[in-house]
Amino acid sequence: MRLRRLLPLTALAAVAVVSGAGATAPANATGPALAYAGSPVAGTARHTGGLAPAVAGPLVEATSRNWAGYAITSLATPAATFTRVHGSWTQRPVTCPASDAWAVFWVGFDGWTNGTVEQGGSSARCVNGTPVYQLWWEMFPTNAIQPVLTINAGDSVSADVTYDAGTGRFTITVADATQHTSFTTTQTCAAGLTCSRTSAEWIAEDVGRFGTGDFFPLANYGRALMGNSVATDDAGHSGSMTASSTWQRTRIQEQDATITYATTEGAGRNGQNFAVNWAHQ
After folding, report:
1. For residue range 13-51, what is the model confidence (pLDDT) as tens digits?
2. What's 57's domain CATH number?
3. What's CA 199's distance to the chain center, in Å?
């Protein structure tokens, strides 16, 4: 799980459906710079045992330079793959410790154990020191973050990523219930890549700069709550991250050797709700 260079955006087979009154695609609100929300830069991991109901699988504590939140993987033999992941949150207002600070919140497949991520969520980016909030999707490492709709701080956001084994297609839907707007895009894994769906995630992330090993400063989102965190695998398990004894949960703290950027709290007993706390830009 190393930092990977993002390929430039070329011709994509995106089929985007934007709905809702007044839904508009942002033009140049984010500026011309390409950026990505992709694989984590990994740190360390350790097992801590179960901290949830008895049915739950084991909990692992881990660190990453750019991810905070939770990932689940299958312990079954053979390992199951994930077919749906869903989450919802209220878009936090951000303050800008730097003029170009950025934070994204998303759900998706892959990235924790491999080099692809299929994801959708919301973004809070400081453009010349002023926050801009958007809904987006990405198929990492095929393309950069794809902003679709502009939203407001305080809006209720949900994101859903599904995989259809019959068609080999991923469907990414992100909705703003406050403004009654949403978009859906259907994607396939790019030629030469394997989108194996070996993990499902609910993540707050520090955005990477295109073509470098560096990150944007992390916009200050305070305490961000993630709810309705559920997933489904192709072995018939469905529900919260604690729903199956075959699902290993990994709680991820965003930090490097010297700085903690964000911390992840424990999930509630239903395994669906948790919070991530901003700590450093």
Report:
1. 333 344 443 333 333 233 334 466 876 765 555 444 433
2. 2.60.120.700
3. 12
- pLDDT digits over 70-127, tens only? 999 999 999 999 999 999 999 999 999 999 999 999 999 999 999 999 999 999 999 9
223 falls within a domain: yes
Decide if 8 is inside a domain. Answer: no
H/E/C letters for each residue in 98-138? CCCCEEEEEEEECCCCCCCEEEEEEEEEEECCEEEEEEEEE
CB environment 82-119: b (16+ within 10 A), e (fewer): bbbbbbbbbbbebebeeebbbbbbbbbbbbbebbbbbb
Question: Is there a contact between 22 and 179 (Cβ–Cβ < 8 Å)?
Answer: yes
- Pinpoint the alpha helices (H) of the chain: none
* Residues of the domain holding 259: 15-278
* Residue 1 in domain: no
The pTM of this model reads 0.86
Question: How far from 50 is each of 65, 70, 79, 230, 281, CA to CA, in Å?
Answer: 25, 15, 20, 18, 32
Nearest Cα to 215, choosing from 59, 49, 35? 35
Residue type, 199: S
Residue 5 lies in a domain: no
Q: Token pair of 160, please? A: 């859903």
